[in-house]
Amino acid sequence: MTLRRSQIVGCGSYLPARVVTNDEMAKIVDTSDEWITARTGIKRRHIAADGEKTSDLAMHASTDALMDAGVAVGELDMIVLATATPDETFPATATLVQAQLGMTRGFAFDVQAVCSGFVYAMAVADNFLRVGQADTALVIGAETFSRILDWSDRSTCVLFGDGAGAVVLKSAEGNGTAEDRGILSTRLHADGRKHDMLYVDGGPSSTQTTGHLRMFGKEVFRHAVTNLSSVVDETLEDVGLTASELDWMVPHQANRRILEATAKKLKLSPERVIVTIQDHANTSAASVPLALDQATSDGRIKRGDLVLMEAMGGGFTWGACLARW
Ligand code: UT7
After folding, report:
1. At the topology level of CATH, where does 3-174 sit?
2. Annotated catalytic residue: which of 11, 46, 60, 115?
3. Exposed/middle/buried for residue 223 (C-beta within 10 Å: 0-12, 13-18, 19+)
4. Fold for domain 182-324?
5. C-beta of 288 in contact with ligand 1 (< 6 A)
6. Which one is catalytic: 212, 227, 282, 321?
């Protein structure tokens, strides 16, 4: 049986130049390198320069991904950009990127699922490609979380960083088996009853302010491992595979302890997990494509590898995307 598949043909990423270490954070709030490292695995994060916007980060990552893919802007049919920190309330940051790239056809829109945003965006793009409504897609995760942090709240401001990552998807014919190259399965979930666990206390229709990130970290942590391991199992079951067959897990980078506990629950060796949290902190929708770009650039993820991306974030939202590289 022939089936349209979305092949991942290129990756790119961008991190702002400014690096802020844990010791520097300790000068801003009552914290320490010891606490941050032990509780999260984070050592440093990148912070966007004054005036550097989410669309700027997204542009750098996108040109990098298009170059890696050998795909010209004119070939793109669609852009899906995952962000919770858009340049403006509207229009979508994706349309700013579209204009800056010089793309004058096709369509572009944002997806908002906070830290799960990239996995949501991949699922959306994959579905457009599968039904034949597009052949080539640019999928971006880009965030400037530094703009929505409460820099006096030590329980949140030490956890996040800025960055962007992007991939190019191209439709190709597969034969419907788990040996096909491309996205094999995507699964998404949301539970809006958990809104108050992780949210921003502002917005155009509520307070007419941008607001700041608020999180009950312990509650998020409590749900993360269960939700993530079950959605990973769902994507694997979709194609009759098991976690033992995974070459790589590329998780959302929120907390090293969550990554390790999820891998343990799936009986996956820690060497199979791509970890970037020490250098990037939590970059929300950018964390998975940033990690993907690192692991493809350094040669860990190779053609034919079975790669699992997963994420959980505000909403709650969570999801996974299984792909053969
Ligand atoms: O990406 C979206 C999804 N987000 C997540 O997945 C985040 C999930 N949650 C977490 O990663 C963890 O819950 C945190 C890293 C946020 C917190 O770790 P924790 O082990 O759950 O710590 P806690 O919140 O229970 O705080 C323990 C103690 C508290 O002090 P007391 O009450 O025990 O005296 C906090 O006040 O640590 C204190 N604390 C800090 N101390 C130094 C909280 N933040 C800091 C800090 N530096 N930055």
Report:
1. Peroxisomal Thiolase; Chain A, domain 1 (3.40.47)
2. 115
3. middle
4. Peroxisomal Thiolase; Chain A, domain 1 (3.40.47)
5. no
6. 282
Task: Please answer whether residues 55 and 84 qualify as being in contact, where contact means their C-beta atoms are separated by less than 8 angstroms.
Answer: no
Distances (CA, A) of 201 to 84, 91, 140, 148, 155: 13, 21, 25, 10, 16
Place of tokens 């949301």: 190
Mutate to test the pocket of ligand 1, among 37, 39, 196 (most ligand atoms within 8 A of CB): 39
Per-residue pLDDT tens digits of the chain, which is 325 residues long: 899 999 999 999 999 999 999 999 999 999 999 999 999 999 999 999 999 999 999 999 999 999 999 999 999 999 999 999 999 999 999 999 999 999 999 999 999 999 999 999 999 999 999 999 999 999 999 999 999 999 999 999 999 999 999 999 999 999 999 999 999 999 999 999 999 999 999 999 999 999 999 999 999 999 999 999 999 999 999 999 999 999 999 999 999 999 999 999 999 999 999 999 999 999 999 999 999 999 999 999 999 999 999 999 999 999 999 999 9
Ligand 1 centroid to 285 CA: how many Å? 21
Give yes or no: 252 in active site.
yes
